[in-house]
Structure formats: C-alpha cells, structure tokens
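Hello,

Our lab assistant flagged a job as stuck in the queue for most of the afternoon. It eventually completed. Since we weren't sure the result was trustworthy after the delay, we are filing this so someone can double-check. Below is the sequence as submitted and the structure that was eventually returned. Let us know if re-running is recommended.
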Amino acid sequence: MNASGKNMPELDDTDRRILRLLQQDSTLSTQALAEKAGLSASPAWRRVRRMIESGMIRRQVALIDPAQAGLHAMAYVQVSLLDHTEQSLARFDRFVQTEDQIIECATITGTSDYHMKIIAPDPEGLEDFIMRRLLALGIVRGTVTNFVLRQTKYTTAMPL
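-- returned structure --
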C-alpha cells in the first residue's frame, strides 16, 4: 500500500515504459502513448487509469521555466526551529504550505530540521522572504542559505 492507503500496482516493463513516456511528455494523447509503448489505445488507457487510481501517478502538471517566469534567484535554505513542540511544528508546516516561494520542503536529519528550496525574482527577493517572512515567524532558531549559482541538473523524472 502507498501513503494514501491504496494498493500499489505491480509494475511490469510496459508500465515502466508508459511512465517513462509520461514523465517526458504528459500531454501525449492516449493513442500516441499507446503507439510509443507498443500497445493499442484501450490497454494503454486502462494501465494509466490504474496507476492514477492507485496513486502511482499523483498528478500531471506543466513545468515552467523559472527565468522565463521572471524568477531568477533560487536558494536552498536549512532551517532550525527554536523548539520541537507540536504547536511550533504545526505552525511551521502551515507556513510552508501557504508560501508559494517555497517550492520544496523536507524534514531532514542532521543539525537542521528542514531543507527548503525557495525561488524569487532576484537575490533581494530571497533576502526579503527570509528576513521578513521566515524569520518573522518567531519560531526559527537559525538558517543556513546556499544561493544557487547554476543548476547542473534538474529533473522531475523518477528513474524507472
């Protein structure tokens, strides 16, 4: 079972091929997907439907080029909280969920509590977000910020 309690489908080579194709281009029509996967349309559609219903395919989205959207600054920020009370953790989690500039956040092991990926129009926008939004919460003990100079690899594709 997956995290949502749904049964996970057994993946065969055809399922993996379909998933690789969809990760490259989720806008493929069922017919085009079927042809590239070596199937007819109905079996391809049924396989995709099964993987959606099981939660294997979470959602299909458009990937936006940050620079073309005016977002030229990115940073990885490690965050340490003042305490680990249920109230502080819940408050931080609510903050993360409501802030669009935070595009990834994970609870981590080590000296920090969270690792976030933040995006902004420029470096000043990142600084403003950290100083006026994140630190203003009053529950953050400290942050370590690493500005991204250049991305050498970016993918959302899972290695299947």
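-- support follow-up --
The delay was a queue issue, not a problem with the job. The result is valid. The longest strand covers residues 73-81. The mean pLDDT is 94.
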